TrEMBL record:
InterPro entries: Aa-tRNA-synt_II, aa-tRNA-synth_II, aa-tRNA-synth_II/BPL/LPL, Asp-tRNA_synthase_2, Asp/Asn-tRNA-synth_IIb, NA-bd_OB-fold, NA-bd_OB_tRNA
A GO CC annotation given for this chain: aminoacyl-tRNA synthetase multienzyme complex
Taxonomy, superkingdom: Eukaryota
Chief site of localization: cytoplasm
Keyword Ligase among UniProt keywords: yes
Alphabetical GO biological process terms: aspartyl-tRNA aminoacylation
Reaction it catalyzes: tRNA(Asp) + L-aspartate + ATP = L-aspartyl-tRNA(Asp) + AMP + diphosphate
GO function terms (MF aspect): aspartate-tRNA ligase activity; ATP binding; RNA binding
Keyword Protein biosynthesis: yes
Stated name of the protein: aspartate--tRNA ligase
Length: 460
């Protein structure tokens, strides 16, 4: 077979060598009838390819053929690597290919709904281009999502989803090393698992059912079944009513549940070590991805501490009060007060990643353990990652469920699981899309979901 070179590996070390590449024709520009420039892209990396009519290898017909290729078509190009004296604008690789052979493998439609090159520009670049009088179409979020497979081709999106894959990989590796086992739980269940009303209802063989709002009940039951430490990765369904920048109707849940010996701080210790290690390794392993993302969506690296900051909910409320923000000390923080608290914490402690613990019981799900010393509070924590110690006493669990207005019939097998001797336990859950959003300081969770599902979107 022929030897193929990837565009990302084209460097000046290959100077004067003949290479064979396959990529998409991102831009095609003719200069008279004797010259043409093609920018060819493969997985977010681009190289400039030059056709110059020359007696032995490039004919005028070849130049004509090349300039008739539609954008985003696949082309095979063979040619010699050269290093131009000046920097190449509009291509990631700083070498050129002097084309000897070109073949269009598969053509894209002549008119595309999104120009990938335009979709890859940052806001600042767009402003500059418009000022310079360039013709360019601003690609809005809905158009991007409608034609996601085109939008996905930008270097930033290539980076985001490759980084997301690493988040999953690091999550699994860390937990497997800590003696957790990965389990699977059903997504078709009888009722709400979080106690909220936001469930997708469906009919399950004439019986009312819903899509799992979380693996909460089953991951706890696996702990009752002596697995000791479990985790899982899977879809989570929320029939959200609110259309916000951080809520999806389906997201990927990263869930952990574990036995504890004495205190739910053991769960927070896992959160702490897991995420510090994850952030460290993302910075280490995903340099190229982070650079590509930052070019389109400029951001500062996430600020986090070696030991994750832990603040009590009361301390958080006090910080807000001191800053003139009134909040209900036994209520939940709304998005705005969360945002302000994030800013205050960053100013005071220099971190964007922290844990707020000892939440008011009233705002936590029914399965959350009340604080033994004060029942107005709970053994729980939140802030991007939410977790808690769980109630392992069946009578208390049943009464808490009732107090929270849950139809206990729909969770009777769950409650029964605690009647046969249940260990002290706790756990946490976080949305994959939210982790990537935080790490890259992206402004919308739709940017980190390949095919987002939100209150207005079920396609593509
Ligand atoms: O805070 P939530 O609802 O907690 C649970 O589901 C618990 N069972 C977790 C536990 O083990 N105690 O959701 C968990 C996480 C949130 O912290 C957030 O990161 C993410 O899931 N999340 C969402 N992500 C995207 N869209 C939504 N609508 C989300 N709702 C929650």
């Amino acid at each position: 077979g022929r030897v193929w070179t990837t565009i990302s590996s084209l460097t000046d070390e290959l100077k004067n060598q003949t290479v064979l590449i396959r990529g998409r024709a991102q831009t095609i520009r003719a200069v008279g009838k004797k010259m043409a420039f093609l920018t060819v892209r493969e997985k977010g990396y681009t190289v400039q390819c030059v056709l110059t009519v020359a007696p032995d290898h490039v004919s005028a017909q070849m130049v004509k053929y090349a300039t008739a290729i539609s954008k985003e078509s696949f082309v095979d190009i063979e040619g010699a690597v050269t290093v131009p004296p000046e920097a190449i604008k509009g291509a990631s690789q700083q070498v050129e290919i002097q084309v000897r052979k070109i073949h269009c493998v598969n053509r894209a439609a002549p008119v595309l709904p999104i120009n990938v090159e335009d979709a890859a520009r940052s806001d600042v670049e767009i402003e500059k281009a418009l000022e310079a009088g360039e013709q360019l179409v601003r690609v809005n979020q809905d158009t991007r999502l409608n034609y996601r497979i085109l939008d996905m081709r930008t270097p930033a999106n290539q980076g985001i989803f490759r980084l997301e894959c690493q988040v999953l990989n690091l999550f699994r590796q860390f937990l497997l090393n800590e003696d957790f086992i990965e389990i699977q739980t059903p997504k078709l269940i009888a009722g709400s698992s979080e106690g909220g009303a936001a469930v997708f209802k469906l009919e399950y063989k004439k019986q009312p059912a819903c899509l799992a709002q979380s693996p909460q009940l089953h991951k706890q039951m696996a702990i009752c079944g002596d697995f000791g430490r479990v985790f899982l990765v899977g879809p989570v369904f929320r029939a959200e009513d609110s259309y916000t920048h951080r809520h999806l109707c389906e997201f990927v849940g990263l869930d952990v549940e574990m036995e504890i010996k004495e205190h739910y701080s053991e769960v927070m210790d896992i959160v702490d070590r897991l995420f510090v290690e994850m952030f460290d390794k993302l910075n280490e392993r995903c340099k190229k991805e982070l650079e590509a993302i930052g070019k389109q969506y400029p951001f500062q690296p996430l600020k986090y501490l070696r030991n994750t900051l832990r603040l009590t909910f009361e301390e958080g409320v006090q910080m807000l009060k001191d800053a003139g923000v009134e909040v209900d000390p036994l209520g939940d923080l709304n998005t705005e007060s969360e945002r302000i608290l994030g800013k205050l914490v960053l100013e005071k402690y220099g971190t964007e990643f922290y844990i707020l613990y000892r939440y008011p019981l009233a705002v936590r799900p029914f399965y959350t353990m009340p604080c033994p010393d004060n029942e107005a509070y709970s053994n729980s924590f939140d802030e991007i990652i939410s977790g808690a110690q769980r109630v392992h006493v069946p009578e208390l669990l049943e009464s808490r469920a009732k107090e929270c207005g849950i139809d206990v019939k729909t969770i009777s097998t769950y409650i029964d699981s605690f009647r046969y001797g249940a260990p002290l336990h706790g756990g946490f859950g976080v949305g994959l899309e939210r982790v990537v959003m935080l790490f890259c300081a992206l402004d919308n969770v739709r940017k980190t979901s390949l095919f987002p599902r939100d209150p207005r979107r079920l396609e593509p």
